[in-house]
Each structure stands twice: as C-alpha cells, then as structure tokens.
Amino acid sequence: MKATAKAHTNIALIKYWGKRDERLILPTNNSLSLTLDGFYTKTTVHFRNDLLRDVFYLNDTVVSGEAYNRVTKFLDLVRQQFGKQDLYADIRSTNAVPTAAGFASSASGFAALAAASTRALGETMTEEALSQLTRQGSGSACRSIYGGFVEWQMGMKADGSDSYAVPVAPAHHWDVRVAAVVLNATEKDVSSREGMKRTVDTSLFYQGWLDGIPQDLIDIKDGIRHRDFEKLGAIAEANCLRMHATTLGAIPPFTYWNHLTVQVMETVRQMRQIGIPAYFTIDAGPNVKVLYLPEYEYKVEQTLRELPGVADVILSRPGEGITYL
Ligand code: FM0
Predict the structure, then answer these.
(1) CB–CB of 88/45 below 8 Å?
(2) Residue 193 Cβ contacting ligand 1 at under 6 Å
(3) Residues 202-237: tens digit of each pLDDT
(4) How far apart are CA 38 and CA 36, in angstroms?
(5) CATH number for the 2-173 domain, one of 3.40.50.970, 3.30.230.10, 3.40.50.2300, 3.40.50.620?
(6) What is the number of the ligand 1 atom nearest to the C-alpha of 141?
(7) What pLDDT was estimated at residue 24?
(8) How far apart are CA 159 and CA 288, in angstroms?
(9) Is the pLDDT reported for residue 79 higher than 70?
(10) Matching CATH number, 177-316, of 3.30.70.890, 3.30.1330.10, 3.40.50.2300, 3.30.1460.10
C-alpha cells in the first residue's frame, strides 16, 4: 500500500484564470502549458492500517494548517472514489522547487500526490482519469500529468467528467527554455485562488479576457506545431498581459506586479530590441518567467542576473509527465 511518484511543475502560456465551479475546480477557459524539468515534487504515499489520521511531511518537516488540510481533503476524494474511507496515509514529499520563492509547487505537488496515492491503493488509472482527479486538488496541476506542451480542455459538463488535460506535443518536440527570475521581497498577498475568484466576480475586463482565448489557442498551437518561437512568445506574452489586466479592473483592484516585475518585463523587451528573441510570462505573483531558445541561454541568463533585485535565475527545459519510482 505504498507508492512513489514524481511530477514536474508547468508554466502556463495561455493562462487558466477563473472557475465556473469552485468545488470541482472547473475552469471558464481552456489553458495551455509547458511542463518544466527544473521543478518537481517527489511524493511517497503509504496507506497504513495503524494510522488514525493522515500525516504529511514536506522536505522532512511535518506540515499542519492550511497546507495539511488541502492534502487530506484531496486524499478524502481519493478514498471516497475507491471506497477506502477509513484508511489513512503517511505522505512524504520533497520539493525541488523553492517553495518560498513563489513558484506554483501546487501543480507538481498535487500531480505527484494523485499519482502516488492511487498507485498505493493498487489502482491503475488512465492518464485522463488521473488528470481529472488531479484537477480537483489544484486546477493547474491537471496539466502536469503530461510532459511537454499540454492543453487543459475546460469541458462543458457540470460533473467535470470532460474537464482534463490532453497532450499537445511531447517535450522532445521543441527545446523551448524557461528562465525563472526570482525577485527579492516577494510577499504574495492574494493567492491565485482568491485572485481569480475576485476577478471573475467583479472585473469589468473579465469578458474581454475570455473573448481572447479561442484565437490565442489556435495561434499558439500553430506556433508550437511549426516551432515558430516569435509566434509562441508573442502570444504567451500578450495572453499574460491580458490576464493581469483583469486584476486592475477588479473591485477592489489589485496587481501581482511590483517595480522589480516591471523592470524585468522592460529588460525582456530591450533584449528583443537588440535581436535576442525572449518573451515573458507571469503567474499570480511578482516573479517573471522568461522564454528563450537554447542558443541565447548565456546572454539571457547574464542579462537577467545583472539586474538589481534579482535573487536568482533558475533555468529549465521542457520536462516529462508523471513517473513512478
Ligand atoms: O497556471 O485554485 O491552479 O494557468 O498560475 O488551485 O485551481 O493555483 F497565473 C495564474 C493557477 C493560476 C495560471 O491557479 O488555482 C495557470 C495561474 P486552483 P491554481
């Protein structure tokens, strides 16, 4: 009754930003991401008859509070799905993602937890079913089941049975790199969950965000198919800007950017002006991810590291989907 799985995080190029059902985690739009090899979570789940509650260790430290509650709530779903209501687990996760740096460790975390917990119960699941289950832990996590370029199809059904990720192109299709720029002083005050809810409920710009999605998806998939980096980068950057624009139209308004965020965005634009193809994308926090091609790696990394306020630059390649260890 024990299994270990590894999952990588992913960066959204077309963002998931808003839910139509909060309990089942059903989104208002399709999203598309690239799985990254640089950041991953390894999780061992051991169901044991002698436990009266779940115990969860992250990087060898026992976890309580909100993070613990999200994990046990997710395992409740798993237990319910497979009729194992009274079986509790010892869960050990290690994150090769700087959790405190504001990276979405929830994507790799819930994907690894879903894979390890179902395998520990002896269940073999299709990737589609695993993605559906993972989605209910954290929406963006359902894309981490697959490697490379992945689309989360929002689905139409009220029960969520048609809302899961599908592969678009494997990791080896195209070596697009991502530099994660870690900024100093990144206190995150609005979670993605809270931020997207406020935006859906109140932002005057939300409909505009939704209106842009279908064309973005068509164009970015075309860019991926033809390995057209300028096309991929320009669409990802514009999509990110429109997502962040919705936060400015919310009541009360908010933004995830600080002055260092804007400085990195400006630097990326300047790199393009001198002939370095680089594009940015930003999630629900101030850190910036920069997309580039391998031949520009040295220049991109040096330029970003020289900026004041940059604590670290972590480079990543396309990564693989779930693996069992
Ligand atoms: O990854 O409420 O998955 O598509 O990262 O747990 O379903 O943490 F930029 C924001 C991720 C949102 C875009 O939201 O939310 C993306 C974001 P949950 P998530």
Answers:
(1) no
(2) yes
(3) 999 999 999 999 999 999 999 999 999 999 999 999
(4) 6
(5) 3.30.230.10
(6) 3
(7) 98
(8) 35
(9) yes
(10) 3.30.70.890
Question: Does 26 have pLDDT greater than 80?
Answer: yes
Residue 188 has pLDDT above 80, yes or no: no
Confidence class for position 71, pLDDT limits 50, 70, 90: very high
The mean pLDDT of 46-57, rounded to a whole number, is 97
pLDDT of 117 over the 70 cut: yes
C-alpha 266 – ligand 1 centre gap (Å): 24
Q: Is 15 in the pocket of ligand 1 (CB under 6 A)?
A: yes
* 8 A C-beta contact, residue 47 and residue 170: no
84 secondary structure, DSSP code = -
Q: 135 CB less than 6 Å from ligand 1?
A: no
The pLDDT-based confidence of 302 (bands split at 50, 70, 90) is: very high
Report the C-alpha gap between 234 and 79 in whole angstroms: 43
Q: Are 78 and 121 in contact (CB under 8 A)?
A: yes
User: Higher confidence at residue 18 or residue 99?
Assistant: 18
pLDDT for the residue 213 = 98
Asked if 288 and 261 touch (Cβ cutoff 8 Å), the reply is yes
The letter for the amino acid at 248 is L
> Could you give the residue range(s) of every CATH 3.30.230.10 domain in the chain?
2-173
Tell me where in the chain the CATH 3.30.70.890 domain(s) lie.
177-316
Evaluate whether 75 touches 89 at the Cβ level (below 8 Å).
yes
Given this model, what pLDDT does residue 128 score?
98
Closest residue CA from atom 17 of ligand 1 = 283
Cβ–ligand 1 distance for 144 under 6 Å, the answer no
Residue 84 CA to residue 87 CA, distance in Å, equals: 6
